[in-house]
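BUG-160 | component: ligand-complex export | severity: low

The export step for heme C jobs runs without errors, but we want the raw record kept on the ticket for reference. Input record follows.
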Amino acid sequence: MTTQVLRICVLVALLAGWMAAAVDQPIAYTHKKHIAIGMQCLDCHSMADIGPAATIPSVAKCMLCHAKIATDKPEIKKMATEYAAKGREIPWVRVYGFEPHAFVKFNHAPHIRAKVDCATCHGDMTQVDTAQKLVNHNMGTCLACHRQKGASQDCATCHY
Ligand code: HEC
Ligand code: HEC
Ligand code: HEC
Ligand code: HEC
Ligand code: HEC
């Protein structure tokens, strides 16, 4: 094999790996456009400062605007006819999470109260369309910050 062919093979392999990392969602939602019109993370992920889960909004909330906005766009039509009109929620594919066998309990609220930014744990979400895993979380990354900020390092803080 020539070096040229080898280079192309490496490129194709890298591209395939990158595409596999991007999550395919049922609606081509875009963070970038909604942040550009002035929406805040908490407008949609409204439980992040008060509960364990940040939560993803119901399609009913999307339709508060999209019953009138961009109704001619194919993705908005799909949202209206396939989900909202049928009373079905959009089955978003989760991006972050832990293996069930690790028995991790995570809680957003204490982090938001302690002024840890969304971006510290999720990267710059203002420039992406659908969410991508921009930050990897593991026990080491949790503990490094807990140690630094004097937060609890007890096993029972993060495990059931
Ligand atoms: C506060 C009003 C508002 C809410 C709430 C809202 N959107 Fe939007 N959305 C907009 C505006 C404004 C645009 C830009 C429209 C344009 O470019 O013409 C947009 C654009 C979009 C687009 C891109 C359309 C295209 O093809 O250009 C999608 C998809 C979308 N929204 C989905 C959603 C979903 C899903 C939700 C709920 C999680 C949601 N929106 C909630 C106002 C809103
Ligand atoms: C200290 C790190 C950290 C911070 C800060 C943080 N998150 Fe998260 N977030 C996570 C982890 C870890 C998960 C996965 C949790 C799980 O699956 O149990 C997650 C999950 C999510 C999810 C998935 C749905 C859900 O209900 O959990 C959304 C949406 C989300 N975060 C949004 C946000 C927003 C918006 C902010 C800022 C207001 C934020 N996060 C701040 C670490 C963080
Ligand atoms: C208009 C509503 C809206 C706004 C505003 C919004 N998001 Fe989202 N977010 C969504 C929707 C819908 C999803 C599910 C689709 C996806 O994964 O992109 C999502 C998914 C996510 C996820 C992936 C959760 C998981 O584990 O599956 C994270 C993290 C997240 N958002 C963070 C943020 C942050 C940080 C901000 C502010 C910079 C923000 N979002 C602003 C609607 C919104
Ligand atoms: C960037 C810093 C940072 C990262 C990363 C981080 N944490 Fe935290 N965590 C904190 C701070 C600060 C607090 C608040 C401590 C307080 O209120 O005294 C906290 C609190 C908590 C609490 C609540 C503790 C209690 O006493 O109620 C849990 C649970 C938790 N973190 C789990 C995790 C897990 C699991 C991860 C990794 C996925 C993680 N944290 C990553 C900084 C961080
Ligand atoms: C600040 C949060 C935090 C603390 C404190 C913590 N862990 Fe973890 N631990 C995690 C997270 C998050 C994972 C999952 C990592 C992943 O999915 O890669 C994990 C994974 C593990 C795993 C691997 C489980 C599996 O099936 O993959 C073991 C074992 C473990 N922790 C034991 C402990 C023990 C023992 C302690 C106390 C000495 C402890 N942990 C304290 C956050 C924490």
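Assignee comment: Attached the raw record above. Residues 3-56+92-158 form one domain.
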